[in-house]
Amino acid sequence: MMRSQEIYVREPKTEKELMPFIRFPWKIYKGDRYWVPPLIKDQINKFSLNNPFRSHSDIIFFLAFQGEKTLGRVAGIIDHNYIALHQEKVGFFGFFESFPDTDVAGKLLSKVGVWLRGRGIEKMIGPMNPSTNDECGLLIDGFDASPRLMMPYNPWYYPSLLEEIGLEKPMDLYAYWIEKSPALYDRLNRITERLMMKEPQLWVRPLNFRFLMKS
Questions:
Q1: Do 111 and 196 sit in the same domain of this protein?
Q2: Looking at residue 34, which CATH number applies to its domain?
Q3: 164-173: long-range contacts, CB 8 A cutoff, minimum separation 24
Q4: Residue 215 has pLDDT above 80, yes or no
Q5: Domain, as residue range, for 44
Q6: How far does Cα 20 stand from its chain's mean position?
Q7: pTM for this one?
Q8: Beta carbons within 10 angstroms of residue 204's beta carbon
């Protein structure tokens, strides 16, 4: 298929240039009733140089364009704590979003691969957003519900899109839904009561956003 304009990848380097990276998912998930959009402020904090994760990691961001139209995004991530713990030269790709186009996905992941290899990394895994302590992997089943806390959510075509550009699935991860159980709540109430008797200074109050920071 002939394209009127070639796809190219660019690195956003300033806070202003990073905003299209942060806001791009709204284009992918437009009309998706199950997608839960992140808070813009949280995303800005997550990518900030002041974020504690940045003290032991290197991160680079890439955006894919056709003309002035944004078609995809990805981040390359090196978590030096992970490498020190596992004694393995592994890098991550994360925050991947793309329209269903292998050219877009391929060029984005290729850029990350080149960046990782240039820093001595021998293997790339992902998505990690941005580490194993956050959202990991892709959703491959269960697209009929919104994601739970810390669980990934993505379009149905992502797994096959990444496989088509040469990536392989190394393992399956599972998320479990626990139904409400009276026995579980009774136990939690008993534990809470014992703690409050043992620690009189401990108290519980209903959440009120007007006094969220009040101790």
A1: no
A2: 3.40.630
A3: 164/102, 164/105, 165/102, 165/105, 165/106, 165/109, 167/109, 170/125, 172/140, 173/136, 173/137
A4: no
A5: 7-164
A6: 16
A7: 0.82
A8: 7
